[in-house]
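Before our next group meeting I need something from you. Please put the record directly below this note.
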Amino acid sequence: MRIGRVRIVVAPWLFRLRPWRRFDGFATHFVIFLRRDDVPEGLVTHELCHVWQMQHRPIRMPLSYLRTGYDRSPYERQAREAARRTAGSSARPG
């Protein structure tokens, strides 16, 4: 994953817009937008997974939501699983 140019932007105003009201974060190819700055670590992991997905499948990934919907998207399932697997990993001894 190319993360050197990935930025996290806290933009509460953006989540007042209709398409994003139900979310606390979303990602583009190089930007993760968050509703607020005190989000769970798992949300950042989830959105980083989407960054990776879009970098590797820049057309297929976003268009998949039209075909399967949000809840049934395989890309959402993968991002949720990544967040679940890494939950609490920073607290573990190295």
Remarks:
- Residues 7-88 form one domain.
